[in-house]
Design a protein that fits this description.
single chain, four-stranded antiparallel sheet, 28% helix, globular, 95 residues, alpha+beta, Alpha-Beta Plaits, 3 helices
Length: 95
């Protein structure tokens, strides 16, 4: 019996959302909770740099489909509390 190998790596569809400085963590989570999208706290390797101090909380959002992600980009880009949204490239080491 031949067994076909299973690709264990599951590609995830993710988006980084960075809030503006002055937006506290609780308010950022309220905004994300309203979207209904799964998220987790982001990380920031720019600690000690200007970008770190000029931005607020960061989150990694996970989507079921690319279409869902694209539609949420449009929504988040209109939110005045959000500094930027972008697709992460986990293969790039920044620091």
């Amino acid at each position: 019996m031949l067994v076909k190998p299973i690709n264990m790596k599951q590609d995830t569809i993710e988006l980084i959302v960075v809030f503006k400085a002055g937006i506290d963590l609780q308010n950022a989570k309220v905004i994300l909770d309203r979207s209904g999208i799964k998220y987790r706290n982001g990380m920031d390797s720019s600690r000690g740099k200007l970008y770190f101090y000029s931005t607020g909380p960061k989150f990694i959002l996970t989507f079921e489909t690319e279409q869902e992600k694209e539609s949420m980009i449009a929504v988040f880009e209109k939110q005045p509390e959000i500094h930027e949204v972008y697709t992460p490239d986990w293969d790039i080491q920044k620091d």
